[in-house]
Amino acid sequence: MAVRPNVIFIIADDHRYNAIRATGDNTVVTPALDALANAGTVMASTHIVGGVDGAVCVPCRACVHTGTHIFQATESQAIGNRAGTHVIRSGAATMPAWFRAHGYYTHAIGKWHNDTASFTAGFCGGDTLLFGGMSDHRQVPVFDYDPEGRYPQEARRVETTFSTELFTGKAIDFLERHDSNEPFFLYLAYTSPHDPRTAPEPYASMYDPAQIPLPPSFMDRHPFDNGEMAIRDEKLAALPRTEEETKRHIADYYAMITHMDHHIGKLMEALAASGKADNTLIVYTADHGLSVGQHGLFGKQNMYDHSIRVPWLLKGPEVPAARRVDELVYQFDIFPTLCDLTGIEPPPNIEGKSMNALIRGEGGQGRESLYSLYKDIQRTVKDDRWKLIRYRRSHLTGQGTNCEQLFDLQNDPWETVNLADDPRFRPEASRLQNELANWMHRVGDLYADRFL
After folding, report:
1. Would the keyword Phosphoprotein be found if you checked this record's keyword annotation (predicted)?
2. Sign of CA dihedral 427, 403, 298, 129
């Protein structure tokens, strides 16, 4: 048995924080994730920091990999500079590269949506690698691992096994093959439950749309132009949103999640059969959340909690069982937390901080406030009760609205009642406005002047 625990890091695509039975959704069926939550700790208020790309998964993954906020994580966060916004900053220590440098065999399966150079530096091996953002789940364009980092288009092949089954199968193969005493870091990145939401049977028919409850924040359209009303994600359903069509989308979303959960269960069975389960840390998270009809939106290009909050389930040696932590944390805190749990000093000068003491109930603290951004049009800051969202008309597209929202999350967790114009709550709004300015200056937000 390895002296240091193994790590299995699972990251899904578009899985919002509460679309798991164990974290609050009583409709979706997720026995494997529920078991993971019950045997470990749920970080119930984990947030992304966002970025300036409509493909929000790109900056979010860069932050996960580097343990820091987006203005440190990538070469550029200038809107439109896709060559720079996709590339992890030169010299940044990525999570796989850091574990590799500290004696771990690092192995990747599935989606890596950043540059191939950072991928090659991080991983000793891999299989069925997807360097794009999305695909038909039965037409998955993948590469074999190349230790030299050469991934020309002519080397790409298309796999017809459903993506979730494909990636899980390769992860199980790895667990069955790995017989070294060297600890491993297995990175498993699903493209589920991202659309096209085409789960195979029996999962596709598992949820009757007529029986799906609508979330309290369902609206037939967003109350104003948030600056990103015509992006691809928002065209997946007609306007105005109808209850019938929204329920169908939610049913398909749940089907993808339950199908993925089934295969995560198979992976856990294989881990148990390998004899390594007792010495393996398991992380489950997602790159970001998703609206699926909430607030009249369908995408993730917004600052509501359904889009900026993600799952973080953690199980393994020295991780308390059946524990829920509600304090505010960032998703990029996962990297230094894993370092702490494996006895590795985290990289210097990163924004992330270990939450190990908080997880173990040893006096640790979460964050007093959190900040998130989207392009040059949306910024938010929140504390343990109050949340401010500030919107601006884009100086590049002319889209958007100059306005604010203020929510009392204690009494309005679905963010349906805007208190920004109520004079009774001016002290809270003013306090959060100052906190927002502090955050923008702290992280070097390129577009801070538009929001001050």
Report:
1. no
2. negative
Beta strands in 340-424 (DSSP E): 370-374, 378-382, 386-391, 403-408
Whether the full predicted model's pTM is greater than 0.90, yes or no, is yes
Identify whether the C-beta of residue 293 lies closer than 8 Å to the C-beta of residue 365. no
The sign of the CA dihedral 277, 280, 281, 286 is negative
Maximal CA-CA distance, the chain: 65
Domain span(s) for CATH 3.30.1120.10 in the chain: 375-450
**Phi, psi dihedral angles at 102 (to 5 degrees):** -110, 30
pLDDT of residue 1: 40
Single-letter amino acid, residue 227: G
User: What's the sign of the alpha-carbon dihedral 285, 291, 293, 299?
Assistant: negative
CATH number of 375-450: 3.30.1120.10
How would DSSP label each residue in 119-164?
HHHH-SEEEEEE-SS--BTTBEEEB---TT----GGG-EEE-S-HH
Report the alpha-carbon angle 115-121-127, nearest 5: 75
14 phi, psi to nearest 5 deg: 80, 20
What are the start and end residues of each CATH 3.40.720.10 domain in the chain?
6-370
Confirm or reject CATH 3.40.720.10 for domain 6-370, answering yes or no. Answer: yes
Please tell me the predicted confidence (pLDDT) of residue 224: 98
CA 290 to chain CA centroid, nearest Å: 10
Rounded to a whole number of angstroms, the CA Rg of the chain reads 21
